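sorry for the late reply, my laptop died twice this morning and i had to redo everyting from scratch. anyway the thing you sent over, i finally got around to it. pasting the sequence first so we're on the same page, its 103 residues, then the predicted structure underneath. double check i copied it right bc i was rushing
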Amino acid sequence: MIMLTGKLHFFVTQFLMISVLHNLFELNYYQMFSQELFCKLLSDFFLRFIDETVSYGIAQNLFLRKMKIKNLRISMKNVRVCANINFNCRPERKKKRKNMRQR
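ok and here's the structure:
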């Protein structure tokens, strides 16, 4: 077994956790969570996997890109997460033209 140390272990663990959360969202499990509960889960996630030795800005950017969340603000002092969550994680479908028959 490969032993991981320090920052590499942190990023591997973080990537796995993000992947699990993202897969839950794609499977529509997010409908079970209220926004308040999900914000609490986010704050727990950042508390566990982001420590003082690693810049949590890097982790935040990775997380935002993976989860498609906009305007995530993290306050480490108050241990609060305020998020404007985009629950539609599927790619946007192209709108059908209304006037297709007229052509």
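The CA atoms of residues 95 and 101 lie 15 Å apart.
thats about all i looked at so far, will dig more tmrw
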